Each structure stands twice: as C-alpha cells, then as structure tokens.
Amino acid sequence: MAEESSGERSEEPTGRRLEQAREKGQVARSKELGTATVLLSAATGLYMLGPGIAKALSNVFERVFTMDRAAIFDTNQMFNVWGVVGSEIGWPLLKIMLLIVVVAFIGNVSLGGMNFSTQAMMPKASKMSPIAGFKRMFGVQALVELTKGIAKFSVVAIAAYLLLSHYFNDILLLSADHLPGNVHHALDLLVWMFILLCSSVLVIVVIDVPFQIWNHNKQLKMTKQEVKDEYKDTEGKPEVKGRVRQMQRELAQRRMMAEVPNADVIVVNPEHYAVAIKYDVKRSAAPFVIAKGVDDVAFKIREVARAHNIAIVSAPPLARAIYHTTKLDQQIPEGLFTAVAQVLAYVFQLRQYQKGRGRKPIPIPLNQPIPDELKY
C-alpha cells in the first residue's frame, strides 16, 4: 500500500481495503504456526505409528544381522536387504509423510485462509532494488524476525537441555538392553522427547499469531482522507449522484407524461395539483393513477391533457387527497371511490353530450365527500 506523506493512519481498514489487500496477496500469515503444525503432526505420527516402526526396525535388524556365511558373500543379498527395508519401513514412513503434508497445509491456511494472488507473483522493481533490499534487511520487520528467531532458538534450546537432563540416564541404559526391547525403548524415548520439544514451539506461536493479526491490520489502516476518497469512489461523488437522480426523475417524468393522453380525466386543484385518472376494467377493478404532480409538473399535465382533449375537472379536496394517498399505477383508496365515481360519471356523460347523445350533465360539486383521514 502506498504510504502518505501526511495524515495519521488512525482508521480501521474498510472492507474494500481488505479485499484489495487479499487480491495483492497481503493476508495475515504466521510462519511459526505453520512450523509448529508440521512438527506436531510429525510427533503425532510417530506416536501413533511408533510401535509399527519399532517392529519394522526389529525385523530389519533381524534380517540384516542373522545372515549365514553364503548370504554374506552373495552380492545379490544387498538388493534383497533393501527390499526388506522398503517393505517393512516404507509404508509407515509414507503414512507419516502424508499426515505431515495434510496438517502442514491446514496449519498454513488456518490464519488468513486460502488465497491465490496472481499480482503477488508478478515481478516488482522494488523487490530487485538494492536500496529497498537494505531497508528490508535493517527495517522494523527484520528486527522483529531476528527477535523471533533468537526467542525461538532460546526456547527450543532450553527445552532440549531440560529433556536431555531428564532422560539422560534412560538414554545411557539403552546400550544395556537387548533386541527388540532396546529398539522399542529407544523409539518410545524419541517420540516423547520429540513431542515435548515440538510443544515448546507453541510458546512462540501463542505470541506470534496475535502479533501477525495486529501487524497486518496496522499496515492496512487508513487515513481519514483515504476513507473519504474510497467512499467517493465506491458510492460516487455527491454532485454525480445528484445528477444521476435528476436524470432518473426526468426520465420517470417523461414516461409519466406519455401516459397522460390515455387518462379519462384530470382532477386539479385548480393550479397547484393535477392527478390523471384512468379506469380500465381489464386492468384493474378500480380507477388508478397514471400521472400526478404539483406546480410545474401539474401545469405540464394540464397542458398535455388540453392538447389531447382530456377532460379537466376542478375538485381541490379530491385532487389533494388522491395526490397524497395514491402512488403511480396504484388504485385509489376505497374511501375515495364515491368521489371519483362522481367525477368519472360526469366525464362519461359529458362525452355523450358532446356527441349529441344525451343531455348536458350537471356540474359536480366542488366539495366531494372525502373521509377525514384522507383529507389534506
């Protein structure tokens, strides 16, 4: 990550910052955790397969040290011995190796998870720069690794000294044992000493894992300005978002205006509000709103309606009630059915009268019956 010349990195890394770091191969890893899991898996494998290995070694020793005189001078016997060694010891050792491989993989991905990054594989000039190399050699990270190496060596050395001191007499007594007892005893000592010695590394792991998590988080921390810039890049600049919203409103308004010529009636207030109502039994059981607006939008709706000979009815309370309670393409509330029915009946009678098929309808009253909860 690029370092800023100014600004304190006091902010926790955002989700996008963490994702970008993973894409670059920057995840929290603990080498000590991987090393400890490998050693402990090997120790566990020896503990589980130790008796089988001890028996296999006994069979090999018996086969090697009990040759007759003819077999000693037969050069082909060397290949037979190697066959015995492979058949007796090879399979137990192969199982231990498979166990180590599986546990080593799990141990290395347990912190930071699985991550494959092509960006981390790309060559970088900074990695080949001698100056950058010296900075890494004498930097804080190098000092931390040196301290860990010294601590790890000290812990293992102290553990090894204590184990050898404790088992020293038992090791000396191995020379007095006879086959196959000495082999089993030696492997038993070896397994337990190896397990205890590997367990001493856990002291380093317990310290290193939290440190690696903290250090990784510290490296990815951001300044307040970086957080603001990332928010702008992710969410968009306020002026751009405002422009997008404006364009969306204009597009929606154009679509709405295109529906006005299909209206049966325009209910107005008479200047500030305008609501276009359509009644289509094939589409809806009740009248629904196909356009609405206030002030300039209301003026535009009336203008389009006049151009297409759509009836305009002045009913201020009804226009306000429909505007505030009904969304576009939504049926009018049940409480307004009576008032809207009066308006539609008047409009349909007016159409018949204009065609010369009936009497001139009586104008509807300006104050239709509007429930109190729907008045605005």
From TrEMBL:
Transmembrane parts of this sequence: 33-54, 96-118, 150-169, 189-214
What are the entry keywords?
Bacterial flagellum biogenesis, Bacterial flagellum protein export, Cell membrane, Cell projection, Cilium, Flagellum, Membrane, Protein transport, Transmembrane, Transmembrane helix, Transport
Top-level taxonomic group: Bacteria
GO terms under cellular component: plasma membrane
Region Disordered, as annotated, extends over: 1-29
Gene Ontology biological process terms in this record: bacterial-type flagellum assembly; protein secretion
Coiled-coil spans are none
List, alphabetically, the Pfam families matched. Answer: Bac_export_2
Lipid bilayer topology = Multi-pass membrane protein
Cell compartments where the protein resides? Cell membrane
Query: Into which family does the record put it?
Result: Belongs to the type III secretion exporter family.
Protein function: Required for formation of the rod structure in the basal body of the flagellar apparatus. Together with FliI and FliH, may constitute the export apparatus of flagellin.
Q: What is this protein called?
A: Flagellar biosynthetic protein FlhB
Instruction: Give the organism, scientific name.
Output: Shewanella decolorationis
Q: What is the lineage of its organism?
A: Bacteria, Pseudomonadati, Pseudomonadota, Gammaproteobacteria, Alteromonadales
Name of the gene this protein is made from: flhB
